[in-house]
Amino acid sequence: MTQGTTRRNFLKMGAGAASVLPFLRAMPAAAQGSDTMVVVIGETINSLDLHRSGTSRAAYQVGINCYDRLVSFGTKEAIGGGLSYDYSVIEPELAESWAVSEDGKTLTFKLKPEARFWDGRQVTAQDVKWSFDRAVTVGGFPTVQMKAGGLERPDQFEAVDDATFVITLDRPSKLTIPDLAVPVPYIINSVEVQENAAEDDPWGLEYLHTTPAGSGAFKVLRWAPGEQLVYERNDDWAGGPLPALKRVVIREVPSPATRRALVERGDVQMAFGIPDKDAAELADTIDVFSTPVENCIHCLCPNFSFEPFQDANVRKAIAYAIPYEDIFQTAAFGRGLPLYGGEAEIAAGDTQWPRKTQYDTDLDRAKELMAASAYPDGFEVPLSISLDLASWMEPTALLVQEALAKIGITAEIEKIPGANWRTAVLVEKRLPLHLENFGGWLNTPDYYFFWAYKDGHLFNSSNYRNEEMEELVDATLHMPMDDPEWAPMIQRMFEIALDELPRIPLYQPALNVAANGAEGYEFWFHRQLDVRPISVG
């Protein structure tokens, strides 16, 4: 992670700024006080329940800030300054302590006796079981995420008494305890939800969509979908040190230029997820944190449900036509890491992921492959992007569109509103050709492949299936990485993925955060804002 810090620039707010900040009543963030922070984001929070089908990535932050998990990851200093989560350290959150049986299959957790839900009721092991039962039952993303850690069925979870929760695994897994620290297995006030659930909605999906019921560090004070979300501190939080902030305003501002102007002037204290161009230009004047996202790839995805993309020659032709370096410089401004121009042969023991592919721009080779395909005269296809992610997707799509035209493929760019993007690309998986990114929350390559290359799994937006890949992912997912069979199987997964190309890697992105008056920002693998450790001056 790099951090550029030279000075903070708090400028008085002029008439022009007042017109874009009605939610602040024309008051700069610096005047809000030391216990309030205003953050601008470009993406849409479309639900307050991470377990709900179609919930946007931006909405994950509610699960992080408003709910507790049994455990969390530690914190470490990041290279170049600032903080990062520490995957190698597990710390207590709701769990006071835990023990693992000798065979690795039984995990016993003791809950903190002082932990209370917002309504004052004690957090019990029955709430933990209900919450885990919900996560493994509702289907979609949360259920598959739990499965990655070997958590698949309600009969694996037992509330022995109010303070003791036990997990029984079918087999020991290197991913189980880390999986308990990701946003999904959060603990819900089961009594409150069941009192408000409908007969045809026993898990309270409609209720929690608008009304969180947790024990976390912050409550949701107000939510205006498409506009803003306001957090209010839970002064009785037992999951960690009491946050310095009493109130946090998360404002949705679609325009990158407006978000940049607001944080640059000091009208807000933080702009989360700013474009790479702004990060490069702002680093000399305010705090900018740019962190290459672990286990994450920006990619172009041909959907195998679209007949031309069932032809391997077509997919490889596209891979050779892509102007990778132009995309990396134009869309990423050179931030992050390139993933093209590598060697096709994988050295023994090399399990690095993401990795450079063997593909680079070679139009002659692309034209040869198209001529050898079943579509030598080309075809037409929509190229879909999310308006929420337009800062990198739009320049990338324009460059891809231009390149594909040179090999006979006419791609018409389709812009989909951010609130509808996740449903279209990941739930319905109906986009023939699209840009997408996925970052694996648990930092191993088999975990990435579990999500992105297994049939039916959420981030397999290309509708890809390969029987050998299915078997390899299942075999490696829970296997210790020092098992002598693990590395060869991982390398075989790489070979298949980079030959069949259901996802064409472009580059490894960086997450950029600009801060002007806010301290304590910590990078997390989930790429969402954890407001708990932040303070303002």
The fourth-level CATH homologous superfamily of the largest domain is: Periplasmic binding protein-like II
Integer average pLDDT: 92
Could you say which overall geometry the principal axes of the C-alpha atoms support?
globular
Question: Which topology of the largest domain does CATH recognise?
Answer: D-Maltodextrin-Binding Protein, domain 2
Helix content: 25-40%
Give the strand order, joined by hyphens, for the main sheet: 1-13-20-12-2-11-10-9
Number of folding domains? 2
CATH secondary-structure class of the largest domain: Alpha Beta
Report the portion of residues in β strands. Answer: 15-25%
**Number of helical elements:** 17
Structural class by sheet pairing and helices: alpha+beta
Let me know the number of strands: 23
Describe what is shown at a glance:
Helix content is 29%, strand content 23%. It has 537 residues and is of the alpha+beta class. The strands form five sheets. An eight-stranded mixed beta sheet has the order 1-13-20-12-2-11-10-9, with helices on both faces.
Structure explained in plain terms:
This protein has 2 domains: 245 residues, Periplasmic binding protein-like II (D-Maltodextrin-Binding Protein, domain 2); 213 residues, Dipeptide-binding Protein, domain 3 (Roll), CATH 3.10.105.10. Helices cover 29% and strands 23% of the residues. It is globular. It has 17 helices and 23 strands. Helix 10 packs antiparallel against helix 12 and helix 16 packs antiparallel against helix 17. The strands form 5 sheets. It has an 8-stranded mixed β-sheet with strand order 1-13-20-12-2-11-10-9, with helices on both faces. A 6-stranded mixed β-sheet has the order 15-19-14-18-16-17. A 4-stranded antiparallel β-sheet has the order 5-6-8-7, covered by helices on one side. It is α+β, with helices and mostly antiparallel strands and 537 residues long. The longest helix has 16 residues. Strand 9 and strand 10 form a beta hairpin. Pfam families: SBP_bac_5. It comes from Thalassococcus profundi. Its main location: periplasm. One of its GO terms (cellular component) is ATP-binding cassette (ABC) transporter complex. InterPro entries: Peptide/Ni-bd, SBP_5, SBP_5_dom, TAT_signal.
